[in-house]
Amino acid sequence: MALLLLVLVGVVVGVVLASSLLLRWNEVRYGNGRRKDGDGCLPPGTMGWPLFGETTEFLKQGPSFMKQRRLRYGRLFRTHILGCPTVVCMDPELNRRMLLQGEAGGLVPGYPQSMLDILGRNNIAAVHGPLHRVMRGAMLGLVRPAALRTSLLPKIDAFMRDHLHGWAGSVVDVQAKTKEMALLSALRQIAGITAGPLSDALKTELCSLVLGTISLPINLPGTSYYQGFQARTKLVSMLEQMIAERRSSGDAQDDMLDALLRSGDDGTREKLTDEQIIDLLIALIYSGYETMSTTSMMAVKYLSDHPRALDELRREHLDIRKGKSPEEAISYEDFKSMAFTRAVISETLRLATVVNGLLRKTTQDVEMNGYVIPKGWRIYVYTREINYDPFMYPDPMTFNPWRWLEKNMESHPHFMLFGGGGRMCPGKEVGTAEIATFLHYFVTRYRWQEEGKNTILKFPRVEAPNGLHIRVQDY
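Structure tokens predicted for Cytochrome P450 85A1:
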């Protein structure tokens, strides 16, 4: 018995010693706060375990992980998450400068390897230099105001009118409905795809792809990364088939795929390869699917909890419907007049923190507040804390759309809900139009109340694990 106890104590001591040595080795590996050449210090912080760093704690604790380290180290600290040595910045002014600094200042997109692998090497959020200008130019051509007015908004209106039909008298899972809505709306605009076997197959693969982008890049069967990469392979195959069929038909179509295939034919811009077109389409579907569906769901949740805001929103949309026949679509001018709707969308994005931050990678040593961030590190521009800054947003944990009407918050130098600098979200206006049109038909057709107990998780992504259920009645 005594011998067994002695062995157990020895094992425990051995494990503790080995763990301490591994943690110490990882700190030494990254300079223990000081560059090897002695030129400047790294910000304070810890690097965790070799290879995994502090990823497990980060994914489990989420915002608490950031808050604890901010209290200990300040607004600028180092860590190792998602496979990368990373400096987290919570300083609003420093974040603004990082976003504006761009490539000339030694910063390029620095998204985790899992996201780069799964979204493709031509993903607009990851490329830089001339390729970024080409890809961004192609995307801006698809979502420019003229396209929104003449082509996209009429399609969005017709889709939303049909998608929201027949909800009265039933219990609806808003999360499931808005995810379906976001995907089908995107597919209709991109390639004229309607609900059916193809959209169902695309949805299945997209769900796996999304989870894979926020996982560790461990390519073993059963891991989220492996499943996400397999989903990408299947999506690429489906899109390749669509492109081949479109080319063989020779028929002109009024959609994004046709515009991309014809892009460059007139010599005004560089022609895209099929690989670039596919990565651009995956990025369009991915970004719109997550942001639009989650924002729409959370807007319904916040409006349910705040009847005064719902009354004001409904008043705005009933005024727009005055003088229109039941089947008459909203116009571009109607959309531009939706001041309170925009305020609701902005407040939803802020309070729900649909996007936690942005990642940049250093291409050279970068100075930040007297610290030196080595080449090859990531900088996490963590915007979540800015969303809850009481100096920018008084009473920040309260849903208050009116704050966006009292002063032009979007012109504030630290407004980062849609990114910043040359990386401002190109699809911002189209995404806003989709959510606004959804809200238009939802609040003018229906009244609703939440059904049962609905739980909302806000990290690592905003979701309702068991759905967000509402009982819907005609208004």
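Residues 358 and 381 are 5 Å apart (CA to CA).
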